[in-house]
Amino acid sequence: MKKGFLSLVLHAHLPYVRHPEHADMMEERWLYEAITETYIPLIEAFDGMINDRVDFRLTMSLTPPLIGMLTDPLLQERYGKHLDLLIELAEKEVDRTRWMPEFHGTALMYRDKLHRIRDIFNRQYGRNLVGAFRKFQDLGNLEIITCCATHGYLPLMELYRPAVRAQIEQAVRDYEKHLGRRPRGIWLAECAFNPGDDKVLAEHGIRFFFTDAHGVLHAHPRPRYGVFAPIYTPSGVAAFARDLESSKQVWSAEEGYPGDFDYREFYRDVGYDLELDYIRPYIHESGIRLNTGIKYYRITTRESNHKEPYNHQVALAKAATHAGHFMWCREKQVEYLGGLMGDRPPIIVSPYDAELFGHWWYEGPDFINFLLRKVVCDSPTLQLITPSEYLGRFPKNQVAMPSMSSWGHKGYHEVWLEGSNDWIYRHLHKAAERMIGLADRYPDADGLRRRALNQAARELMLMQASDWAFIMKTGTTVPYAVKRTKDHCVRFTRLYHDILRDRIDEAWLSEVEWRDNIFPDIDYRIYRTHR
Predict the structure, then answer these.
(1) 472 C-beta neighbours (distance < 10 Å), count
(2) How far out from the chain centre does Cα 315 lie?
(3) The pTM is what?
(4) Which of 230, 407, 444, 464 is most buried, taking the most CB atoms under 10 A from its CB?
């Protein structure tokens, strides 16, 4: 047996940004960029390892909003058109840079890669990327876990426990629908844990979740092995803690690998650099300049705005070097820990936002590919493992209650509850109270009233997404986050009053169902107090 285990965890999530009422909604591009730069490159890497018989292990969340968007025919069609336009631009860039040797190789790289992405999306997987990830799960290489239904921040729903339960129950149902079995693990939104939520997880068959390091280090009683072994909560659900050392090597903009000067510069894009008349067909229809994903410069330096041309082959070599370094550091880590933990091999849990790999760090999927291959083929010390496999090997673990925590700045709730966003919670709480009341009042509704109750549940869940509070805090696209919160609140409130007055406007309800269509099979009764 190896001396220790490495569990890589990728949290794949985007807020629900489907806008059928607009032909060119800027926020939908969040999804298109993630598909092009993160999800399909990861699928390509996984397929390559399967073809080469590399028996890798990886854990990955697919959140219900992301699954909903990836399986939505409208968004699949729109992404296909978006990809066609990108390929058209890439072809033009090959021609434009023909006599610019410092950029031409990169232009060819983009063109070839985009053609591969289109082939994977359309031909290989028939636009069904969830099916692609499910394939790797069924082969035993990828453990897919779920998340709260709309990435709701559970500790701030504590006032209304049925709302917490509804976020978990809907997530479990959605996972089973799309992935063919019930989830074993969950990524709690923002890695936020509140003591008592583990009981809800246990009720729904969830075996494990993740916390930040201090969530386990501050557990009661104090964990014997720190963050290098899971603990069981009193309800029997395992908590795995994030390893700070491995996280910093990737996350840190100052010290982490993504900041290396040879890697691609995110903030220099042809959408901003080239003449407007040339780039106009590939940005927003209003003429607002946007990232296209085609970038020709490397990071070069942080001390000035001077940027040197990007060399993809040099960057790939650096990604391979960094993957080897990351593996070496984990090997030394488990060797040191092995002397402290006796017969218990340590597990190092390294969780990251999936979109870091590819979108923000262009070479990230290559780093993942190199790392998984290196550990499987070269490491005498380290073994890749999923949380389920680890619990199967080591079913006996210390019982302790993790502390309230999150992986946000300062480790608790401040990111999602502070001056820029605290105004939303009185509305979220009132809506949750009303939804629970409706579910209790109408336990067996049918017809138009049932449709309205189901839509009210959708509007509440969409309003509860932690993404909106996060955006308000970070200052990016704040008007959009505020509008989404208010729109869902207004729709929910109208539905609430219409249901109570038995004056449901079917035409308006149909329009809202068409617009906010997440969870087509939702059952409002998940909000009932007693079931």
Answers:
(1) 24
(2) 25
(3) 0.97
(4) 464
512, 462 contact by CB (below 8 A): no
Dihedrals phi, psi of 40, to nearest 5 degrees: -70, -40
User: How confident is the model over 4-55, as pLDDT tens digits?
Assistant: 999 999 999 999 999 999 988 889 999 999 999 999 999 999 999 999 999 9
Give the Cα separation of 526 and 531 in Å (integer): 9
How sure is the predictor about 531, in pLDDT bands with cuts at 50, 70 and 90? low
The answer to whether the CB of 113 falls within 8 A of the CB of 44 is: no
The structure tokens listed for 198 are 């583990």
* Residue 95: both structure tokens together: 């021609």
What is the Cα–Cα distance from 405 to 420, expressed in whole angstroms?
21
- Higher pLDDT: 249 or 17? It is 17
All structural domains of the chain, each given as residue ranges with its CATH number in brackets, are: 4-71+128-254+310-408 (3.20.110.10), 416-527 (1.20.1430.10)
- Helix, strand, coil proportions of the chain in percent (round to 5)? 55, 10, 35
Whether 432 contacts 460, CB under 8 Å: yes
Q: Which two tokens stand for residue 140?
A: 């035993």
201 half-sphere exposure, CB direction, 13 A CA radius? 30
Give the pair of three-digit tokens for residue 132. 């692609």
- Least Cα distance to 188 among 205, 174, 209 occurs for 209
Tell me, what amino acid is at 405? S
Instruction: Show which residues are catalytic.
Output: 190, 353
Residues 65/151, Cβ–Cβ less than 8 Å:
yes
Q: Are 442 and 503 in contact (CB under 8 A)?
A: no
Give yes or no for a contact between 436 and 124, defined as CB atoms under 8 angstroms apart.
Answer: no
Burial code (b: 16+ CB inside 10 Å, e: under 16) for 70-80 equals: bbbeebbebbe
Contact by Cβ (8 Å): 344, 4: no
DSSP string for 217-271: HT-BSPPTTTTSS-EE-TTS-EEEE--HHHHHHHH-TTTSGGG-TTSBPTT--HH
Asked whether the beta carbons of 373 and 164 are under 8 A apart, the reply is: no
Mean pLDDT of the chain: 95
